[in-house]
Amino acid sequence: MSRRNVLRIALALVAIVALTGSASAQKKKNDDAGTRGVQGTVMGPGEKLIVGAVVQLKDMRTLQVRSFITQEDGAYHFSGLKADIDYQIKAEFQGMSSSAKTLSVFDDRKTPVINLKVEKK
Question: What is the pTM of this model?
Answer without folding.
Answer: 0.72
